Request: fold
Amino acid sequence: MSKVLIIGAGGVGGVVTHKCAQAKDVITGITLASRTESKCKAIAAQIDFPVKTAQVNADNVPELAELIRKEQPKLVINVALPYQDLTIMDACLATGVDYLDTANYEPLDTAKFEYSWQWAYQDRFREKGLMALLGSGFDPGVTNVYTALAAKKYLDEVQEIDIIDANAGSHGQPFATNFNPEINIREVTATCRHWENGQFVESPPLSTKHVFDFPEGIGPMNIYRLYHEEMESLVKHIPTIKKAQFWMTFSDNYLKHLEVLQNVGMTRIDEVEFNGQKIVPIQFLKALLPDPGSLGPLTKGKTCIGVIARGIKDGKRKQVYIYNICDHEACYREVKSQAISYTTGVPAVVGAIMMLTGKWHKPGVWNMEQFDPELFLETLGPMGLPTVVVDGGEWPEL
Ligand code: NDP
Reply:
């Protein structure tokens, strides 16, 4: 009997619930809890499998612990927001349950995301014989697994990685983000950092741009360098990496809107006084923008997320490109969500299956590249995200 408790009923929570229900041979019971229980009930109603629902404030450890004790899951899947990572980890420790998430902890009042806070739980999880798997989404998540695969199978030494995330889809809205707008805008407007020769090097947000020719008919798109959290764990756990960069596509239209919103102060994360009330502009902006969940039926096109790893094989320099292509409309037909939530939610469930079946299980706090990548990818493909490996091509240095 492997019961899971999913926390967060947003775009990703919906996909995770659908996919847990499809994994009946491993997952035998599902409870979906979130701040707004009506959203849990709406997701449960889409699924032909009994899904229990509950209301919970995931900022409150005793409330979470009470829910966990009542539901008795083997694993908590955290797909709420990064602000809740530590409280949910604390509740898992208090109740003796394993933990999985898809994004690293970020304090609400500081746009700073890094693993140090969660890595600090290593001893507490290990001593209790519990496991926490960090960043089991696509990026972070599958991109870490692809890098580990390059290191295990295709290169003797991985020296450089370019993680490239393309959303070649279109939703027809003037401006919308594909996942939680607050998290998305905080990430995109942060100072860029990339890894080079043993340290992170800073540059202004979105100041480095290239055109990259994507495979499988997607074609050339503008990619912009930004900081992304998987680089922090990858350069620690695969220390041969001398250079690591993360790239994402943005349309000119998206960047135009973002620039104006920033210039007028709408992306600020500090409190401002308005009509005798304190508001945080980016939270107000989130309330105005389309709910990413509402983009599902509108979004057409594909995503292409992957890693180009460069290094040495048999004494010669070699490159390997490992990627996945995902179709927005096919995702919507299957789980009523666009590909951004799908590509996050499916790896979360595959991570859960790895833990629940014991294929990936050891006490402590771990990142994805610390386990056998092939075991994960063997399950990821049949669950909806097949992997393409182009071994030994030539891609321009970025
Ligand atoms: P959404 O904003 O759509 O959903 C978040 C959900 O969490 C909502 O249901 C929200 O409740 C709930 N929630 C927020 N605060 C609390 C709280 N205090 N207590 C209980 N529930 C709470 O986000 P997404 O589904 O788009 O993203 C979910 C996670 O996935 C995020 O952490 C995001 O960073 C991560 N992510 C990871 C990616 C990857 O590839 N690794 C890619 C994309 C996202 P309510 O409905 O009431 O607001």
About this structure: The CA atoms of residues 131 and 363 lie 5 Å apart.
